[in-house]
Amino acid sequence: MKKIIDSLAGLCVLVAVCAFAVGCDRARSISEIEAKERSSRLYDNAMDDYRAGRLDAAIKGFERVVLDEPKSYSAHFQLATLLEDVRKDYIGAIAHYRAYLVLRPASDKATVATDRVKRCETLLARDIANRFAVGPDTLKNENRKLTEERDALAAKVRKLEVDLEAANKIIVGLKKDNESQHNLIAKLSAEDPGTAPTTAKQALAELRAMEAEAARRRNRPTDAELLDDDDDSNDRIRRSADVAKLRAEAEREDKADAGSRYAHAVSTNKMQVAAGGIFGEGRKKKSAIPPHPDTYTVQEGDTLYKISTRFYGSSAKWRAIRELNKATISTDGRLRAGQVIRLP
Prior knowledge:
The protein is an all-alpha fold. It has helices at residues 2-24, 30-39, 41-51, 55-68, 73-87, 90-103, 110-132, 136-189, 197-219, 223-227, 233-279, 304-312, 318-324, and strands at 295-297, 340-342.
């Protein structure tokens, strides 16, 4: 539409220039105009470009000619044909055909110019109709595109609804976990201190440490935790009681081991004192613990306490093992069969 408006404005300017030129040059004859036109270097250059097939250059050349000599009817006609056939600028072509008819209404090309004006008007009307008309196929295509966009948006909405439902389930589960933790802490805190003071305190401390570690893992998880985060929250809370039991069992084993070692040392010392002179042997040094491997593959039923006892003769090393492998062992100390751990 902007192009059409610009062409109409150019047509009005051209008509005004032609009218002014006609009014000013009435005293000049057609023969004088033709003589000047043929002798014009601008016209000759434009014709040379036209004959050589340089049509864009020819159009610019003839435009300069008509600006320099508005009554150059040959330049108007040549420019009109080029605009019609090459540029498909029907408005500009009509303007220059009409200028030619004003200058040479009775020439042999007047009929040709008149026919070309009619043809340009027809082609211009067709172009305008094609440009602004909206056919059934266009409406169908637009409707199809809108339908596809609507369906895509509906699919996104359904997916968001599913994600929202899953998020709500997770929130409900976390609330239950939190309630279970607080209930267990309250129960342990209410135990009789004289019944099992050490076990209750350890379990309470363990649960609080688990809460702090769980918060840390939610906010700043390590790479290993991101790769091994399939534990269910309920299972972790349920296993906290097992951890407390294992801790108490480990302490009992340590005490039993210590008592057994003390009794054995006393007995051995007495036997060595009694038989030292007979056998001519001094006290035997306690045999060193055999060397252990740097890594160990966890077997079914293994715990940190059992592994510590197996390789160090005591369960006291379980904390060192967990600390060395804290990137791969969960906070409750649970191991998986087939897991490879390092030994301190």
